[in-house]
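On clarity, I found the account of how folds are encoded harder to follow than it need be. An entry of this sort, consisting of the sequence and the corresponding backbone structure tokens, reads as follows:
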Amino acid sequence: MTTKQDMIDAVTAYAEAHYSTGGWEVVVEAYTEEGIWEQIAHCKNPKEAIAVMRKIAKDYKSHSDDICSEAF
């Protein structure tokens, strides 16, 4: 059985391993364990939890890229 902490740990490990790509730095830098849990509590397994956080990271990256492209 996958526990709450297993799910959080899976997301955290994935985010740290992919820190430099796809916006994952926001997960590492801005999300607490409880903040991660708020996003993934409905997930059934770590793979699904990572997919949910991937969408959040991707949206962050897209927004960040848009802001940067307008700055110059």
